[in-house]
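Notebook entry, cofactor series.
This is the third protein in the set we're modelling with a bound small molecule. For this one the ligand is flavin-adenine dinucleotide. I'm keeping the input format identical across the series so the outputs can be compared line by line later. Sequence and SMILES below, as received.
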Amino acid sequence: MQPVPCMDFKPLQADQVSAWDRAADVLIVGFGGAGACAAIEAADSGASVIIFDAASGAGGSTALSSAELYLGGGTSVQQAVGYDDTIEATYGYLMASNAPQADPEKVRAYAEGGADHLEWLKSLGVPFKHSEYPHRAMMALTDDCLLYTGSEKAWPYRDQFEAAPRGHNLEVEGDNGGPLLMQLLEAAVRERGVAVVLESRALRLIVEGRDDALPVCGVVVRQDGEERYYRAERGVVLCAGGFVMNSDMLNKHAPKLQRATIPIGNPNDTGAGIQMAAAVGARLINMDEGFVSLPFYPPASLTFGILVDGNGQRFINEDVYHGRVGTLILDQTWPVYLVVSVDDYADYETVSYLGAPIAATGETIEELCVELGLPEGALETTIETFNTSAAQGEDPQCHKHSDWLKPLTAPLVALDCTPGRGAFFPYFTLGGVDTTVNGAVLNEAGEPIPGLYAAGRTACGVPRRGDGYASGSSVGDATFSGRQAGRAAAQTGDTA
Ligand SMILES: Cc1cc2nc3c(=O)[nH]c(=O)nc-3n(C[C@H](O)[C@H](O)[C@H](O)COP(=O)(O)OP(=O)(O)OC[C@H]3O[C@@H](n4cnc5c(N)ncnc54)[C@H](O)[C@@H]3O)c2cc1C
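Returned structure with ligand:
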């Protein structure tokens, strides 16, 4: 990754603008999932809206994504399929899995508003089938909707909260949810007469006055090589994504994340929104956190295997969500291997996203252990201990559910899951500007900065931990928080 050219995000004083190029009630920076939803809500609240994107089309990382949406509390699809999910179970799970830094107010709003949010998306034409994809999978490649995309059925959560599938996949074949979602959101934005300004990079915010609490009243945008000045009569909403493509910011704020190998997102995930906000005094929080994945299923049968560290020790219940595994691997003693019976290796070579090379094979447990070269006897003991309890349907050490317990039987294979040795370790950032539940950006003192709002990965929302992440909580949160921020910005002064 190339360092991002250094930019000066220092705000411009409004009295230095000799002529405004254009004005609207609400200016939105970034036309991904959050920005699109902010624009729709702001327009529906009666505001005139301009939305900018540095790219030549709408979409951002949202269009690159699978667009699974993590929504619970009894959505229409959950009900139709027969799940009695509750707001309390959704709230409890999201609070626990994002603890200790979960934001109770945001999680509460998200859990209570999840069912309505799905209906709102449906009202824009986003299709969801009343069906379930009942497999342990990264995503549904069919047009089925509901699937488990977190660790709800795994320890430590399964005994605390009633489990329910909350990942909502769009009704589209293949991994095509993101493009379809953005196509429909873009159509809804344009139908409302929102001015869409593409190939236009927001550079700096414009502020009014010279005191400490400077109201934000516009944006400097570079278009066709020239700086233009856009005035916001009511508010500016920053929806410019995260900072996974900015190596300087990663080095400064989230160095550990770079132990994973593949930053995923669009090239404009350079943290510009976060830096523009910081330059007017916004508080940045949770900046070291990110989503990290080790996508070791499908095939689901690899879940019968055991993950061991460089000391030959297990460190996790392998039935958890792939993001929890990926995050925990960053902290282990490397190398890390996934040891599995050849029978369960199954169709790994054709269906897996993992790309982990084979580190060793063994006709016997001993042969495998020798080939891996781990401390003498360690892995043998680990496998023996695991096999003894797995035969009784128990896992006192790591608490893997009995559905995924059976003794490892030779021949065995070990996949090398050490970061940097070929396995796919994607990551993106979960830190950003602190906001109220309505998207108002907060300064270091916890006070709203007048006229400034943020949503999606520019803000720090519901998903806050890599080890607690659930697929769908980023697009879910981006679209949900975008709506809140767009609505609040359209209603001047709503910073509650
Ligand atoms: C391959 C992949 C799969 C994923 N799958 C899922 C999934 O299934 N479910 C899930 O919840 N999450 C998923 N994610 C994560 C999720 O897609 C993102 O975190 C989320 O979509 C971010 O939405 P956003 O609106 O905040 O940002 P984006 O959708 O990235 O939009 C930000 C926009 O801002 C623009 N921008 C940036 N800087 C500027 C600037 N200075 N001026 C003007 N415009 C600017 C960008 O060009 C971009 O269009 C996935 C991510 C990837 C990459």
